[in-house]
Amino acid sequence: MTDPHEAARPYYQAELSAGIERFLERRRDTCPWCGSTQISVRLRTSDLVQRKPGRFILEECRTCRHIFQNPRLTPAGLDFYYRDFYDGLGREMAEKTFTAAEHCYRGRVDLLKRFTTPTAWLDIGAGHGHFCRLARGVWPDAVFDGLDQSVSVEEAKRLGRIDHSYRGEFVALADELAGRYDVVSMHHYLEHTREPFDELDAVSKILPAGSHLLIELPDPESLFGRVLGGWWMSWFQPQHQHMIPVRNLVQALSDRGFSTVAVERGAAHHGGDLFLSLALVLTTVAPDPRLPWLADTPTRWRQLRHSAVGAVGRPLLVGAYALDSLLSKLVRRTRGGDAYRVLARKDG
Ligand SMILES: [Zn+2]
Questions:
Q1: Residue 81 contacts residue 238 (beta carbons within 8 Å)
Q2: DSSP character for 44?
Q3: Lowest-pLDDT range, 13-22, 134-143, 259-268, 291-300?
Q4: Which residues have CB under 8 Å from 93's CB, separation 6+?
């Protein structure tokens, strides 16, 4: 059987030789959130997770504290960098990550339970339907539908994790979704979108009065981001287009006819920040030489170095994991987690 890495190599090498500068738009000189010209570089980095070539810049607005990729990727650029991340070569790793996030799924359910009982729920950015699988165990009578741009949402339907799958862009599909749901969720979705205001406009359009919108995002104000700097996983370049401070999101929701009923900060903490940043360091020191987008072909030396760094790193990763678990217990009692949740109700 052909090695999937080798099978993917011709595609990547052809894309790379066509030049990756074409994947970036022109740099903008205003904040996409508030229009201020007071913007400055927060982070220069690369694709630390997959190691695909390219340099990326996150800029921060000094007026509203919004953080955004600048210049941002074109849609073709996004396709290139998302490829083999959640599916294909990255499928196994993505599955592990989503399975490990079960405590977050429970946190979302516990938050919503305090305010409503869903009857029809649309999860936007549903991926492989891991969250819906858990939530429908809690509310077996509710309908759970999922929307995603990737093929993953069709797999979620096949696996029975959701009742109906919508594949495509939410804003384009919004008209057919209007008035059909009493809960919509966007978990770690908005930060991946190119135009978060368009997404919020669309969700405001489809939700009737009294319905609920649950949003979870990485917290750009997190202490982890300051302490771990460029090695903080949640900067997640080049996928994250926008990192939205919680007060900005609450205001944008209010502007669109939503009242925020709950904000969770520490309680929404994902955890694993130390483990993940150490994993990024190890991957940087000795990337998997089979990766088909690396310029060099795999050699025995590169394979040995990757295995050796893996062997040295494993006990360190175990230690980081243990430390993360201890830290998480503390952090979940504070307001300083790596993510936040906002639950909002559509006004009548
Ligand atoms: Zn701004």
A1: yes
A2: E
A3: 291-300
A4: none
Residue 1 clears pLDDT 80, i.e. is over it: no
Write the CATH number of the domain with boundaries 75-227+245-348.
3.40.50.150
Q: What tokens appear for 322 in the block?
A: 């243990």
CA-based nearest residue to 271, from 218, 209, 214: 218
Q: Which has more pLDDT, 274 or 97?
A: 274
Biggest CA–CA distance in the chain, Å, is 65
Tell me, rounded to whole angstroms, the distance of Cα 166 from its chain centroid: 19
> Ligand 1 centre from 60 Cα, in Å?
8
CB 91 within 8 A of CB 197: no
pTM, rounded to two decimals: 0.95
What's the pLDDT tens digit per position in 18-28?
Answer: 999 999 999 99
Q: Where are the domains of the chain?
A: 75-227+245-348
- d(CA 39, ligand 1 centre) in Å: 8
Query: What's the CA-to-centroid distance between 238 and ligand 1, angstroms?
Result: 20
Q: How many CA atoms lie within 13 A of 236 on its CB side?
A: 20
Question: What is the distance in A from the centroid of ligand 1 to the CA of 236?
Answer: 20
Q: Distance, CA 68 to ligand 1 centroid (Å)?
A: 10
Please give the distance, rounded to the nearest whole angstrom, from the Cα atom of residue 27 to the centre of ligand 1.
Answer: 15
Measured CA to CA in angstroms, residue 170 lies from 9, 102, 289 at distances of 32, 25, 37
